[in-house]
Design a protein that fits this description.
Elements: E1 2-5, H1 10-32, E2 40-41, E3 44-51, E4 60-61, E5 68-69, H2 71-82, E6 85-91, H3 97-101, E7 108-112, E8 124-126, E9 131-140, E10 152-156, H4 160-169, E11 174-178, H5 181-189, E12 195-199, H6 200-206, E13 215-217, E14 223-232, H7 235-250, H8 253-264, H9 273-318, H10 328-341, E15 347-354, H11 357-364, H12 366-383, E16 389-394, E17 397-403, H13 406-422, E18 436-442, H14 445-449, H15 453-470, E19 474-477, H16 480-502, E20 505-514, E21 520-531, E22 535-537, H17 539-548, H18 552-572, E23 579-583, H19 594-604, E24 612-617, H20 618-623, H21 625-637, E25 641-647, H22 653-659, E26 664-668, H23 670-674, H24 678-694, E27 698-702, H25 707-715, E28 720-722, E29 730-731, H26 732-737
Parallel strand pairs: 1-11, 3-6, 3-7, 10-11, 10-12, 18-19, 21-23, 23-24, 24-25, 25-26, 26-27, 27-28
Antiparallel strand pairs: 2-3, 4-5, 7-14, 8-14, 9-12, 9-13, 9-14, 15-17, 15-18, 16-17, 20-21, 20-28, 20-29, 21-22
The structure holds ligand C2E and magnesium ion (2 copies).
One magnesium ion binds next to loops.
Length: 756
């Protein structure tokens, strides 16, 4: 059986049909002009022989001369010569030799194994055998072949005639025909066929292709096929064949063998691009990779070099070559960065100048002056942290950005930096004291918003000039008020950790009462600080400062823990009390998990959730509404009561009530005192109380200072109260010694307790 694997286009089929039509006409002309194929020209007839183009070394085009050459060509040329023909060769353009038989472009066609009919069905006549061509099987290296009669063989379509001969020899064989050698090899690799069959001369050429290095010729020749010329069986055709047979008979066998040897021993195969790619692909790839890597490395190196040079340039621009401290340019950038990254750090900026430096240079020499400047730079650098900066502006002018650190720090700087500089020459045994004039500018909160380094330097310089003009030496502060404030802030924030461990904080309790019954219903924990240096501090000073510098959480954790310890002790004494604790707006951050923190606390101290009431100031709800609401909901889920502190002191009170799920509202009475019309204030309070109740929340009024306020509140329906009228915040010992069993009556006199 023969199967055809074709990808020929419709155009090719149409061409074939036209060729058939043409052949019909040619056949007719043969009948009238029997010798027209061999045109008689100048005594010798010329014979046009059609040969296939894809059979190197049997038929191929010589790359140098462009002529058609090969074993078949030489054999035919010799035979034709003996037969008295001049012979020319043309490559057949038809798909198969059977097609070519139908064309009148050729007088004879070769090679044929035996006479076959043309595509149009006409019979042919063939010459005697020019030579025996061995046909061999080729398969993949490792492939084991089935018996010949069951073999699936692939052949080139142009070998159509040969395929018929093979079928006659091996009837069980299955032959698949392919357009090109590449198609047939692919079929072999895809296991469509077991082996490929072709003329072994052709194999000796084709298998030189590197991509086919895995293909092997089966050692035993499968069969030999005759190698004949053929033409249509017409009178003219028979004449040509007869004459050729004479020529073939006259060709000596030795001559034929010489022709075969000549062509098979030549190195004919020429590498094309794909062969080079196959052969040297890996090397090419590695070379390309190497080249690419080298290119990348070179580019990276150049880039690194450029960056390094830029860095060096930047360093040169940003640093003072004499002292190694920053230049003014570098100082500007550094200060901007520091203020941006540490907006909560209180800083001052100083402008420092050596008085009469010119005379030092004149009397001691320039090198000694340079040495002094280097010494000053080095000493300052030793004293400064990474969050501070120093620069030499020019000559003997240095600027320093330093954290505010209170008086001790100033003294320290005097001892560590300024005194050694002042005594620089004296320490060398020379009678010359260096005088330093400094001006200090303390940064204000606005300086962190709009950072103008030059402006700050100007202000420090103004103070420095005051010293220079009026005194020998020393420092002046441009803004002393800010300096004092800065020092106090520094004392508060820098001392907090020590204060916490030294027990400087005291938790006071301010009881809350029911005015109707006189009973104590709760108490608020309020913090007091007996600062080691500054004495008693008011919460209104240190709480906002700690909030501003984001340190309040440390204090609050301490207060909550102390309150829980007290509650635990009272529980053990059989007194089940509830305490309201304050939660700063700065405490509430997603990652802190405040509800979880309180939940842990009550478990550690064995408290019940109703013993802790959490006060969150009203304004906090405005800042991060969503987080606050989530926190509130979670706290209530754990069973804690949540109170909105200072209600009425902000701007969004009424709006807040709508969304915030708190248990109790703490109404701040203080704002009422500031309003002009007390009657209107009372109307507002009355309606506010009604509204809070209508919304299902309870209410406590804080800041109740007199009986009139208390009675008015009660008449409005608010009995829960907290204020100096009843109790002032008191230390825990005092609170514990209070007799809670005696109810405080409405008409009783106000509290006499002293606020610590
Ligand atoms: P607050 O939470 O609204 O606490 C009530 C404040 O009103 C307390 O001031 C209390 O002493 C004062 N007060 C109570 N009754 C009266 C009165 O009849 N008249 C007047 N004029 N004032 C009264 P204090 O203790 O100075 O606390 C001020 C604020 O500092 C507190 O306001 C609270 O927001 C905050 N605070 C106090 N301790 C802490 C704490 O431990 N942590 C946090 N985060 N904040 C605290
Ligand atoms: Mg409070
Ligand atoms: Mg309050």
């Amino acid at each position: 059986m023969i199967k055809y694997h074709s990808n020929r286009s419709e155009a090719q089929i149409a061409r074939r049909f036209l060729a058939l039509l043409f052949c019909g006409v040619v056949a007719l002309s043969f009948a009238v002009a029997p010798v027209s194929a061999a045109s008689a020209a100048h005594g010798r007839d010329t014979l046009t022989v059609g040969v296939p183009a894809d059979r190197c070394p049997v038929f191929y085009r010589d790359a140098d001369t462009d002529e058609i050459v090969g074993i078949g060509v030489d054999l035919m040329r010799v035979a034709a010569e003996h037969a008295g023909y001049d012979v020319t060769f043309r490559f057949v353009t038809e798909a198969t030799l059977k097609d070519a038989l139908d064309s009148d472009a050729y007088d004879v066609i070769m090679p044929f194994g035996s006479a076959i009919s043309s595509t149009s069905g006409r019979s042919s006549v063939v010459s005697d055998n020019l030579t025996q061509t061995p046909f061999t099987l080729v398969t993949e290296d490792s492939r084991a072949l089935p018996p010949l009669n069951e073999l699936r063989v692939g052949m080139l379509r142009s070998l159509g005639g040969g395929a018929e001969t093979v079928l006659q020899l091996f009837p069980g064989i299955e032959i698949s025909m392919y357009e090109t050698m590449a198609d047939s090899v692919k079929a072999l690799r895809d296991d469509e066929v077991d082996a490929l069959l072709h003329n072994s001369f052709v194999w000796s050429y084709v298998l030189q292709k590197p991509a086919y290095s895995d293909l092997r010729v089966q050692p035993s020749t499968m069969f030999s096929m005759d190698f004949r010329a053929g033409t249509l069986d017409t009178p003219a055709g028979r004449t040509i064949i007869e004459r050729l047979n004479g020529g073939i008979a006259a060709t000596p066998e030795t001559h034929r063998q010489a022709i075969i040897l000549d062509h098979t021993s030549r190195r004919l195969y020429r590498y094309d691009f794909s062969d080079y790619l196959h052969q040297y692909g890996l090397i090419l790839l590695l070379t390309a990779l190497l080249f690419a890597s080298l290119t990348v490395i070179t580019v990276q190196k150049r880039r690194a070099l450029r960056l390094e040079q830029e860095e060096k340039m930047r360093h040169l621009i940003d640093h003072d070559p004499l002292t190694g401290v920053l230049s003014l340019n570098g100082f500007r950038k550094r200060v901007e960065t520091l203020l941006r990254t540490h907006p909560d750090t209180p800083y001052f900026l100083s402008y420092n100048n050596i008085k009469n430096f010119k005379f030092i240079n004149d009397s001691m020499g320039m090198p000694a002056g340079d040495e002094l400047l280097r010494f000053w730079g080095a000493k300052s650098m030793e004293a400064l942290s990474d969050e501070e900066a120093i620069c030499r502006i020019e000559g003997d002018h240095f600027a320093v950005l330093r954290r505010c650190g209170g008086d001790e720090r100033m003294l320290q700087d005097e001892t560590d930096v300024l005194d050694p500089v002042r005594n620089f020459f004296i320490d060398q045994g020379k009678d010359k004291r260096v005088q330093i004039c400094s001006g200090v500018y303390v940064l204000t909160p606005e300086d962190y918003q709009q950072i103008h380094v030059d402006h700050m330097l100007d202000l420090a310089r103004v103070a420095e000039k005051r010293v220079r003009d009026t005194r020998k030496d020393g420092y002046e502060i441009y803004n002393p008020g800010q300096w004092e404030k800065g020092k106090r802030v520094a004392d508060i924030i820098s001392h907090l950790p020590a204060a916490l461990s030294a027990g400087e904080f005291q938790v006071c309790y301010q009881p809350q009462i029911n005015f109707k019954t006189g009973e104590i219903t709760g108490t608020e924990a309020l913090c007091r600080w007996n600062h080691a240096k500054l004495g008693w501090l008011r919460p209104s000073e240190f709480i906002p400062t700690l909030e501003e510098y984001d340190l309040i959480y440390d204090l609050d954790c301490y207060v909550w823990d102390t309150v829980c310890q007290d509650l635990h002790r009272w529980n053990e004494q059989g007194k089940h009390r509830s305490v309201s604790v304050n939660l700063s707006r700065r405490d509430i951050r997603e990652e802190r998990n405040i509800p979880g923190h309180f939940y842990n606390l009550i478990h550690v101290y064995g408290l019940s959730a109703d013993q802790l009431r959490i006060e969150i100031t009203e304004s906090a709800y405005v800042e991060d509404h969503a987080l606050l609401i989530r926190t509130t909901v979670k706290l209530r889920e754990f069973g804690f009561q949540v109170e909105m502190d200072d209600f009425g002191s902000g701007y969004s009170s009424l709006h807040m009530l709508k969304d915030v799920p708190v248990d109790r509202i703490k109404m701040d009475l203080q704002f009422m005192s500031e309003t002009g019309d007390p009657e209107k204030g009372r109307i507002i309070i009355r309606h506010m109380i009604q509204m809070v109740h209508s919304l299902g929340m309870s209410l406590i009024a804080e800041g109740v200072e007199n009986v009139t306020q208390a009675q008015f509140l009660q008449s409005c329906g608010c009995s829960e109260m907290q204020g100096f009228y009843f109790y002032k915040p008191m230390p825990v010992q005092e609170y514990e010694s209070m007799d809670e069993t005696v109810p405080l009556l409405a008409a009783e006199s106000p509290s006499t307790a002293k606020q610590p």
